[in-house]
Amino acid sequence: MRFVHIADLHLGKKIKSIRGDIELDFYNPIRQINQIIREFKPNFLFVSGDVFHYRNPSQDSEELFIEFLLNSYENVDYTFVISGNHDNTKKLSNIYLFNKYINRLSRKKIFIYTDLDLRKDVEEENLKPISCDNVDIIMIPFIEYRSAINAFYNIGVDKDFAYSFVHSTLISKFLENSVNRIKILLGHMYLENSVLSGTESKNFINPTYYVKYNDLDDRIVYCALGHVHRFQKIGPKNVFYSGSLIPLDFSENFDHGIILGEIIDKFPKISFEKLSYKEFMILQEDKDLFEKIEKNKDKYLKILYTSLSNEVLEKIIKFDNVLKIQKVDNTSFTMDRKNDSVVITDAFDILEMYRKYCEIEKREEVLPILVNKVAEIERMVNA
Ligand SMILES: [Mn+2]
Question: Comparing C-alpha atoms, which of 79, 46, 342 is closest to residue 196?
């Protein structure tokens, strides 16, 4: 059986530039994926969450996604989509209404499963995988912390790693009702030991949302994950993040694409297919700056400078490919984004998260008044 695994499409995402907001090009990457699917002829297509970037996606991005699903109808037997933290559950459900109708008419199927569906199945004690041929598909869309804990409140969840425990419980409940040989999990979650990219939602990549690697059941043959934007395999099991389709900003300076897989005798053979897309590049002020801007016409550029005159800056602004110009305080500024990746502390510390956010996104310190306010609230809570 062959499959294609994609995640974190973030359709419709815009980035801020000196010329106002620019919508990233998703049309070309989606067209490439459609083409790959036509050639590779997978039986399964897995879309592991974060289909749309905004809760109210533009009509264009909605249309693009629906066209993408129609292409799947033609070229894939079974398509599975789960919702991510970015997705508007209602929006995906509405798209699914239409699919449900076509599902009845066709041998080929599309399934869209959101956290609302999951919650309903938990409440009705109706958790079971979807069986297709000899494959069982388990789907765990992104679950917001409180609703995860609430759903399992009655079975007594421990405070430490409660979120992870909810996931392992869900998985074992699914597996209780699994009859088929090949078990595949689609999940939108933040797995321990995954390497972040910097564009993941900061609210959902803190220790509260940690899912432990060992909580992914060993009987699962392939884990198709979304949430972390960097393509990677984690640990010895076949646990993969396919990463975002394209770089979503200047911090995602690594290869982006999709995963092609083939499972023979329970062993997946995996390959990564890089897509072609417009790249992001950070340039530092130097004597060849203009030459470099010219040379990288096909990329989005961010210019870092310490002491350029207004005259020169105005010239730079005229280049269409320059999205951002940023003054940095000292020349030792490093372009190595590794230092920017979010440090995971062992406790949930909202102030620390915000401090890190300010440091990375705004390059400024947290206001002292805010620090005092948080301390005050903490005193109140602990009193
Ligand atoms: Mn995402």
Answer: 342
339-355 confidence digits (pLDDT tens): 444 444 344 567 777 87
The correct answer on CATH 3.10.20.30 for the domain covering 2-274 is no
CA of 378 to the centre of ligand 1 (A): 31
Output the CA 200–ligand 1 centroid distance in Å: 6
Q: Residues 279-301: pLDDT tens digits?
A: 999 999 988 999 999 999 999 99
pTM: 0.84
Measured between its terminal Cα atoms, the distance across the chain in Å is 58
* Domain assignments of the chain as residue spans, ordered by start: 2-274, 280-382
Task: Calculate the CA 98 to chain-centre distance.
Answer: 25
Task: Give Cα 291 to chain centroid, integer Å.
Answer: 35
Using the mean position of ligand 1's atoms as its centre, give its distance from the Cα of residue 128 in Å. 26
- Residue 153 CA to ligand 1 center (angstroms) comes to 28
